[in-house]
Every structure is written in C-alpha cells, then in structure tokens.
Specification:
7 helices; 2 domains; alpha+beta; six-stranded mixed β-sheet; five-stranded antiparallel β-sheet; 35% strand
Length: 230
C-alpha cells in the first residue's frame, strides 16, 4: 500500500478531482471567450514532482500555436489569453508610444511578457491596453543604415526619460542594428543592445550595454533613483 502511495506521489499525476477542476477552468474559458474554442490538454508543470494542480493548459482554435494557460491564483481564475489575443494591439500601442523618441530610419517593437495574466474576463482591446500593457519585457529594434546611434551616455539618458514618469516596473531592451535582422539573431547581428532593468517602481537597478552577441557587457548606470532625476 505504501509503495503504491509513493508511486502516485512521485508520478506527478493529478488526482481525478484535480483533473475535473482543471477541465472546469477550461470550460470557463469557453464560456467567457465565445469567439474561440478551447480544449483541455493537461496540467502545467512547475512542481518538483511534475504536474501542477493550480495550472491548466489548453489549446485554442484561433491561436493553435500558443499555449493557453488558466490558473487558480488564491481562488481567482487567471489566464494569459488576453495577452495572446491582444499582442498585436499591444505592440501597435507601444510602437506609437516610442514614435519620435529615437532618431532612426525605422524601428519595430516586440511585446511578449512572461508570466503575464489577467482575470478570466472578456475585456476590450482598449481596457487591456490601458490596464495591462506596461514597459515590461519590451524590445525595441532600431534600424539606422549609417550606424550613427546615440552614445552610451545619451542612450542612458533617453532610457531614464522613458521610464521616469511611469508608475510601474520596467524592463526594456533596445537593439541598435544597421540592417534588418530576425528576432532570433538580433543580439548577434546588431551593433549593440541596451537593457534597462527595474526591480521596483522608483529605482532603475541597472542600464547596461552589450556587444559581440552579448559577450561584452558593462553597466552604464546603477541604482538610479527616479525621484532624483530631472
């Protein structure tokens, strides 16, 4: 008997009731987002023994290549689905936000935050952008054929000016490229890239610059208190 219990414990499998609960969560996705169809595919991972009873994975008919997550967070059902279906709208908003900030021939913005969730609610595009789109995990690729990008100090000042009035934790990467490149090869193909990291709202932990595919990196600024900036 003990051996059976141990085998079940270490297998990482859900109990029958836990699976039923997760299937109900996916049914809530179907009820809430009527323009799409969701199919339960299993539990998420993330525990030492495998399956996570608090995280369910679903497949979406509209976004078949994406992993739809619905989780129980202290009794509230949350999902990453709104971030997936409104990714283009979020990137359009951020593209407009960054317009005119940098001198370049062209630029593009990628926004795909990790571990980003909303309640299981069918919110509008406008509500999503206003409530949930922040400068976290935001990547901006600048294209300038002649390679005349701002100096390190100038770029640091620009990054500080971007975040100083935003009441949020930001994580921004700026890639400086002389020609278009794929998102997978940006760090290798660009002249250099800058990363701004914040761990709390009022302080920039660091602004760094890297080149040679990230092999050469150093900090330009550290522990910048935003309330002290002009």
């Amino acid at each position: 008997m003990l051996l059976c219990l141990c085998a079940t414990f270490f297998s990482g499998c859900l109990s029958g009731q836990e699976r039923k609960d997760q299937e109900k969560w996916v049914k809530e996705l179907n009820k809430t987002f009527e323009d799409d169809q969701f199919e339960y595919t299993g539990a998420g991972s993330g525990t030492p023994f495998g399956a996570n009873s608090n995280v369910a994975i679903a497949r979406s008919k509209e976004f078949p290549d994406e992993k739809i997550i619905v989780r129980n967070n202290d009794g509230e059902l949350q999902t990453n689905y709104n971030y997936i279906r409104y990714q283009k709208e979020a990137e359009d908003y951020l593209t407009e936000y960054f317009d005119g900030i940098f001198e370049c021939d062209d630029y593009e913005v990628e926004y795909k935050p990790v571990n980003a969730y909303t309640p299981v609610e069918d919110i509008s595009e406008r509500e999503f952008v206003e409530e949930y789109v922040h400068l976290n995990q935001t990547r901006v690729t600048l294209y300038k054929e002649d390679g005349s990008f701002p100096s390190e100090e100038e770029m640091a000042e620009i990054l500080v000016s971007i975040v100083k009035d935003r009441d949020e934790v930001c994580y921004i990467t700026i890639y400086c490229c002389t020609e278009e490149t794929s998102t997978e090869d940006r760090s290798k193909d660009c002249v250099c890239f800058y990363t701004l990291v914040m761990n709390k709202k009022d302080t920039i932990s660091s602004i760094s610059v890297a080149s040679n595919g990230g092999k050469e990196r150093h900090n330009i600024r550290e522990q910048v208190q935003l309330q002290d900036t002009v």
